[in-house]
Amino acid sequence: RPPRSTLFPYTTLFRSYAHNDNLAFRGGRWVEEFVGDLREGLSPLIGSAAEVWRDPRLAGNAALWPELSNRLKKSAVLLAIVSPAYQRSDWCRRELQEFLQLHAPKRAPGRSFARVVRADKLPVDPQDLPDGLATAQVLRFYQMDPRSRYPQEFISSDGLYRTRVDELASHIASVLASFNEHVDGKPGNGR
User: Fold this and answer.
1) Which residues contact 125 (CB under 8 A, 6 or more apart)?
2) Which of 51, 62, 68, 135 has the fewest beta carbons under 10 Å from its own?
3) What are the 10-residue block averages of pLDDT along the chain, 191 residues in total?
């Protein structure tokens, strides 16, 4: 196993997503495949195994909130996998707000926070997203079909999917480098 990241005691990423977005689709679970591909692309860029956390037991149980809050506190980046289901999820909104309160309490409303990153699985209206997410760096993992005008989400066999995963991994690596500088006390804008 590769050595732990210099982010210790931080987990590299906390993935925030709506469970409906991970239902079996086209023979796989989109979120699981996406996060695995992202981890694979990110690890070489940060020089260690990228840790991506989520609680597989999450089933709308309020008793899990203390554990989630603790994991959010220990996460360097919040990766929001955005979709209409994400947009409607109270849990997802709560995770985002907790992350922002823990890591950016003095952030002015409407300002972006580099440690919140969006991967849009399906289109959403940015005006309907909570503060802190509407202004976050975003990469789209879908395209609009020119004939039907319906969104087509990328799947792992699509060339554009791989390109977007690599772009996202590079972006997150740069955010983590800045965060590492902040944690180490060296110049950087980790917050």
Assistant:
1) none
2) 62
3) 47 89 78 94 92 68 77 92 94 92 75 87 91 88 94 89 96 87 52 39
